[in-house]
Design goal:
homodimer; 456 residues; alpha/beta; 2 domains; 7-stranded mixed beta sheet; 4-stranded parallel beta sheet; 19 helices; 15 strands; 41% helix
Chain lengths: 456, 456
């Protein structure tokens, strides 16, 4: 058997909240060191999602209406990568959860749909967000379109101009997608006045999206984030919960190794958190988030309080970070070019439950090509960072002569990212050494921020 | 329930050959009017596929090794378009077979895999083909890559230059993709000498691909075609056979209406032929192939012997045709811009079993947008020609107050075709009136060809 399928009735009915099974997280704080209260967030997020964000309840019901929408593409298949196994001549059995089946092509809609639904429940009419290459923006556009919400996406200007495909997707799904910085916010106008030719940045786009949300006089607009926060990771756990049921169908026990690429952490968390529950309860699993060597948040960053965005507009989060001023080299896996990491993923690192690895761009593309050659599909450049690790572990299993079970998250397809493949195939791609001086400078910048010294 | 799934063990084990249930087809003939013999085709196709091409056996076993490869994405889901139904307030129940799940994104790999496998069985090492926008070329590249065959794709020069995405897919799957006309064949060199700036055409690309196949001295190269021929349509019937089993799971009887878009006819045939078997045996089904008004082969063409290609290199086929010299207006549904139609589909028209309709480009894009708004996914421009008809029939069912069951083939996704959507959304797209003078001129050109007057 190659694919292990669940019917609609077998879809998980609850999300798993890892917060319940870890020591308390360091709380988000304000730039002057005070804890963030739910009320402080009320103009940015709806209160029902803020409640989820701070919930310590282990299992949280998935509303039936959200499941109804997820049925469009969920449960997603669990597949066995038999042909990759054969090519590698490994005794390992490699399984992957195929999240590329959603209409926007990745795991992102799992939380986009949930966030749009909770906002609508709360009476919100419009969501704003930022997007870089457009993966998250298109997922939120998709969700808002299905739920009848307006959607405004601030897309980093250089991507807006250079990567038109995702922008068209957003337009098909009725979103209003503008280049950031834009003339529609004070932040945007101010930056355009000072730097009319700026390519924009995620930090600026976040600032614009938040400004639009909080300045709506009717209070019917909120902001939506595609990763990092607890409630976002929560919504993704449906991936791992489905995978667990599917592994039972495949007559496998808990996997020996679980792998996911991690930019903000949501696809990795979605697959792995439900298995962390088992690990905490005694299962022996190696759980590996993977990241680019060019943006090595978990493997080279420090655990400290830092801003979530480059513009220093968000609360301070306790996380592994390269510093909010760190600008990663222009690798093609845009979704992994983030200076921080979800606090919940960081907590799992600190507890010794998971252990990160980093991979070079060229090795990742080489892995993606081997994947296309053996399994047939074209993966997202982000996903190739998981596949590189899978191949490494499968080869190790071969050397050790061990029948390991490896599970990874196939977080998205690469059909919107063919330009990177083209460069790789024509030999134009290079690896980027980590800019050490930049990193040290960026880390020094956050040393003065409050909170870090008081950490447990 | 929204999706109806089959497991691997439920995949059809035989293809259905409609030839067995229709009066004998008018045979392919040479330009001087003689019947084509299997031996005449032996340098173009392997003999095992030629045998399938002329077989009158109703059920043909699908080799286990082909099924093994199809398991990568098959069985595909049968889905109910509940949200479109709700939007239209129709009493009709609309089902679609989702062929967009294959790695190249359409139904094309169903035959690409089968053809590559039969060629390999016959000792062939390399396949050549032509491609326009690249849908078929990428499917054959995908199949050859999995089966370890070399693949050479002659891609129409203007598409090669203007539509780089599919070309990159082919390269990822190890195909050698060259712009046609190329310097690699006599036909190509000759045309380049006379017309160095030609944008190329499918006709030229076919001629180059065939030339390369037949001029391989080691006889290890053959040519592969993505539609039109009997064996190609045969391989696609797995779609309809799966759909039948899935409709039983959905507790539906035989559908009232079956719809598929038709360029060369393969996706339409794949879904509908297994149901034509039921219709011949008494079931009441309306079966509708849909085409563009800009290239109305079935609704405005004549039934006559004509060349399959613009360059007059292929055998003459008895089919509905606009004449091989007809150049359709540049609609975005490139896969439907073909002057002819599969002889087997044409025979079903002549027998009164199916009845074609044509749709304008703007109505099709409008339908595609409604599909994205309600069902969430972005369809191929070809597929939108089926959806336009589905909407029309669903509205008719509403007017009549009838609970009809409508089934259609969702032949592919539109993620590689976003440029057309962009033009539609910005108001740049227009409908094209059928160029009547061109059509009449083109039809006059084929009046002198042999065969037509001798038809039954």
């Amino acid at each position: 058997m190659r694919r292990f399928l669940l019917g609609e009735k077998d879809i998980p009915k609850k999300w798993y909240n890892l917060v319940a099974d870890l020591p308390p997280l360091e709380p988000p704080i304000t730039p002057d060191g005070k804890p963030i209260t739910p009320q402080m967030l009320a103009s940015i997020f709806p209160m029902n999602l803020i409640e989820q964000e701070i919930s310590r309840q282990r299992w949280i019901d998935i509303p039936e209406e959200i499941l109804e929408i997820l049925y469009r593409w969920r449960p997603t298949p669990l597949c066995r990568a038999k042909y990759l196994e054969e090519f590698l001549k490994t005794p390992a059995r490699i399984y992957y959860k195929d999240e590329s089946f959603s209409p926007p092509g990745s795991h992102k809609p799992n939380t986009a749909v949930a966030q749009a639904w909770y906002n609508r429940q709360f009476g919100i009419r419009k969501l704003t967000t930022e997007t870089g290459a457009g993966q998250w923006g298109s997922a939120l556009a998709f969700a808002c379109n299905l739920l009848g919400l307006e959607c405004k996406v601030y897309m980093v200007r250089i991507s807006y101009e250079q990567k038109p495909l995702r922008k068209i997707m957003m337009q098909i799904w009725n979103a209003d997608c503008v280049a950031s910085p834009s003339n529609e916010t004070n932040v945007g106008r101010d930056i355009l006045k000072r730097m009319p030719d700026t390519p924009g940045s995620l930090g600026i786009a976040i600032s614009e999206a938040v400004e639009e949300a909080i300045s709506d006089k009717t209070a019917k607009t909120r902001y939506s984030l595609g990763s990092v926060l607890n409630h976002v990771l929560l919504h993704q756990t449906i991936i791992g919960l489905e995978a667990k049921a599917q592994l039972r169908i495949a007559k496998e026990k808990i996997p020996d190794i679980i792998i996911g690429c991690a930019g903000g952490g949501s696809n990795f968390a979605g697959l792995s958190f439900p298995f962390i529950y088992d690990k905490i309860n005694g299962a022996k699993i190696e759980i590996i988030p993977t990241e680019p060597t060019a943006c090595p948040t978990m493997t080279r960053g420090i655990f400290a309080y830092d801003f979530g965005d480059a513009a220093c507009k968000t609360p301070l989060l306790a996380m592994y970070t390269l510093g909010h001023a760190f600008i990663p080299p222009p690798i093609h896996a845009g979704g992994l070019r983030y200076h921080g990491m979800a606090p919940l993923v960081c907590q799992a690192i600190n507890e010794g439950i998971i252990s990160a690895r980093s991979y070079n761009q060229l090795q990742c593309y080489e892995s993606a090509l081997l994947w296309a050659k053996t399994e047939g599909a074209i993966c997202a450049p982000e996903t190739s960072h998981a596949i590189a690790c899978v191949i490494e572990e499968a080869q190790k299993a071969k050397e050790e002569g061990k029948e390991k079970v490896i599970l990874f998250n196939y977080s998205g397809h690469g059909l919107m990212d063919l330009a990177g493949y083209k460069k790789y195939l024509s030999g134009e791609l290079t690896d980027y050494p980590l800019p050490e001086d930049e990193l040290q400078k960026s880390l020094r910048l956050i040393k003065g921020l409050p909170g870090t010294k008081r950490m447990r």
